[in-house]
Every structure is written in structure tokens, then in C-alpha cells.
């Protein structure tokens, strides 16, 4: 009797030399669930779109309406430099799938960049119906300015109503805008105390956002020592990808604005005028202009406060204060109001 031995390290031969593809055995529901997680958590469009050319099945399932409806803000963060018909089609697919972020992004791009005001406002309205806070506020700004139309198309009451809805869901820019509207009686009966309450809420939310960003930054650096004075170096909130797109689109060397049109001077906005003299300008220097009172207040706090008021006025105020202390006089000193943003820009 002859015995056959098999080497221990030798792998057994597969019958018919075939390999089993377990991927084909996975149900579509499971793959769609995984792709939904990916689309909602991707840090950039490329993180999600690289799945498409992998195979025909993944390409088909990645474009499933349920997957596209879950796409997050960063997944939809298309840049102006990479804008193309394909990017436009991708955003439209997501918007048609009911994705509120996609409706907002496509609406803003169409309204301001492609100058298709009708369809742009329509897409933003689809997002607003889903209580999408930035879309509600964007429509409020359009109503306040009469954007896409004439000066007579302004609807202050509609703007306040949209702003109030956005503020109700906690949007900081809307809280600030509504606070100034109430303080000024702009489109709503004047109520200074209620307006101040909304402004305090906006500042509190900003501070909480800055504190979270600061704690996250310190934890990444491994530094446990925390100083509140360092919070000034932390941005209040990150610029929304749509606002970044607008800034890039109308940036140097790209699409230029028509003659007589200006951009909002707040660095975190990016909105352009749709007609001449649409935005409110600074009533002191007349060199900057803003699409909203919220942008004006933010820019005043960050930089324009030092750029607008002439240096000699600050020196004169300081000299007058010192002189009063020395002589102990009863005269009035020149005072620079830190809250000058309350009545600083023209409507």
C-alpha cells in the first residue's frame, strides 16, 4: 500500500480554481446603510465620490436617493475652483433627493453666482420648508434687500418673519439680525429690551462655540492649561462652505462683478449685490457696505471699528479724558461709543 503525504504548508487546491466573491452576497440594504454613513460623515466631496468608480454596483448604490439625501455639509462642499457641470449635476441629484443642505448650496450658487434668481430662490425655499436655518436666514436677507429685483421689492415684514423662524431654531446670525431689527424698529414694532435679549443670546452662543473650538484645539495639542484670554484667537465660527464658495467665485482673477456692484465687506459672507446700491453702507466712512445688519455688527467688532474711526479722534478722546482727570473739571469729555454698531450703518 502506498501512502500520499501532503506538505503542511501547502494550501489546498480550490476546486475548479474559482474564487468566491463575498461582496456580491451582501444585500443592497446593508451596502446602502454603509454608504449613508459615509456620505453623512465624509470630510470632503472626494472622500465620497471616490467610491463611484470602484465598481458598477457601488456606483449605482452610491447614487441611491437615500444615500444622497444623507450627504453632509462637507460632502457637498464643492469649491469654486472645481465647479463644473458634473459638480452642478451632483448637487442637483442630492437636492432632488430631498437633501436640505444641497438645496441651500445649489440655491445660493444659482442665485448669486449664476444669476438665476428664480430657481435659486426656489431651491432655498425647498430647504427652508425643512427648517434649514441658513436657508431661512438667506431668504430673509433677500427680502430685506429686495435682492434679484428693484428697491421696491423689499419686504421687511417677510424678512423679519423668516429671520424669526431661523432664530427659533438657534441660528446665531438670525438671532443677531432679529435683535437689531427689534432695537431699530426695522420691519417690526420697536422693542429695545427684547432686541437686547436676542443679541445677548447670539453672543452667548458665539462664546460657547468659541469655547468648544478652543477646548478641541487644546486637546489636539495636548495642552491642558487653558486661558480665557486665548479665546480671542479662536474664530467665532467656521465660514460655511457656501460662503467660502461665493468668496472664491468672485475672488481676484475669477468672475468679476458688473460695474457698480460691490461685495459685502464682512469676510465671512461672500454675498454680492444684485443691483447697484443694494447693500447698506457705513454712515461714517462710507467705504464699506454690508448685506445685513448682522454682517455689519460682526465686521465692526472684528476689524472695522479700528479702521473706521479716525486715529486722531481716538487721540483727542484720550487727551480730553486725561485733561479732565488732571483739572477735575465738570465738562464733558469726547466719548467713543463701543456700541456704535447699533446706529452705524445706513439702511
From TrEMBL:
Superkingdom to which the source organism belongs: Eukaryota
Domain (MYND-type) ranges: 266-308
Keywords, comma-separated and alphabetical: Metal-binding, Zinc, Zinc-finger
Keyword Chloroplast part of the UniProt annotation: no
Stated name of the protein: F-box protein At5g50450-like
Amino acid at each position: 500500500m502506498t501512502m500520499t503525504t501532503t506538505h503542511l504548508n501547502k494550501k489546498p487546491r480550490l476546486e475548479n480554481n474559482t474564487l468566491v466573491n463575498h461582496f456580491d452576497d451582501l444585500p443592497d440594504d446593508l451596502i446602502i446603510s454603509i454608504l449613508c454613513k459615509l456620505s453623512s460623515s465624509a470630510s470632503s466631496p472626494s472622500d465620497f465620490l471616490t467610491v463611484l468608480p470602484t465598481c458598477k454596483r457601488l456606483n449605482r448604490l452610491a447614487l441611491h436617493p437615500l444615500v444622497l439625501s444623507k450627504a453632509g455639509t462637507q460632502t457637498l462642499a464643492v469649491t469654486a475652483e472645481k465647479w463644473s457641470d458634473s459638480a452642478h449635476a451632483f448637487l442637483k441629484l442630492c437636492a432632488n433627493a430631498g437633501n436640505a443642505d444641497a438645496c441651500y448650496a445649489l440655491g445660493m450658487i444659482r442665485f448669486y453666482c449664476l444669476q438665476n434668481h428664480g430657481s435659486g430662490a426656489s431651491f432655498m425655499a425647498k430647504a427652508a420648508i425643512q427648517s434649514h436655518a441658513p436657508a431661512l436666514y438667506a431668504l430673509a436677507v433677500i427680502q430685506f434687500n429686495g435682492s434679484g429685483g428693484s428697491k421696491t421689492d423689499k419686504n421687511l415684514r417677510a424678512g423679519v418673519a423668516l429671520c424669526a423662524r431661523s432664530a427659533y431654531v438657534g441660528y446665531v446670525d438670525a438671532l443677531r439680525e432679529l435683535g437689531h431689527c427689534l432695537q431699530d424698529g426695522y420691519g417690526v414694532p420697536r422693542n429695545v429690551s427684547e432686541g437686547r435679549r436676542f443679541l445677548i443670546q447670539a453672543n452667548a452662543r458665539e462664546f460657547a462655540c468659541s469655547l468648544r473650538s478652543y477646548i478641541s484645539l487644546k486637546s489636539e495639542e495636548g495642552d491642558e492649561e487653558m486661558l480665557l484670554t486665548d479665546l480671542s484667537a479662536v474664530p467665532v465660527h467656521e465660514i460655511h462652505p457656501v460662503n467660502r464658495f461665493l468668496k472664491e467665485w468672485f475672488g481676484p482673477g475669477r468672475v468679476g462683478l458688473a460695474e457698480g456692484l460691490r461685495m459685502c465687506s464682512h469676510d465671512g459672507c461672500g454675498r454680492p449685490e444684485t443691483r447697484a446700491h443694494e447693500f447698506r453702507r457705513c454712515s461714517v466712512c462710507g467705504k464699506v457696505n454690508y448685506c445685513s445688519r448682522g454682517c455689519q455688527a460682526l465686521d465692526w467688532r472684528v476689524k472695522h471699528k479700528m479702521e473706521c474711526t479716525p486715529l486722531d479722534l481716538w487721540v483727542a478722546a484720550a487727551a480730553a479724558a486725561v485733561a479732565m482727570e488732571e483739572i477735575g473739571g465738570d465738562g464733558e469729555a469726547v466719548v467713543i461709543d463701543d456700541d456704535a454698531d447699533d446706529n452705524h450703518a445706513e439702511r
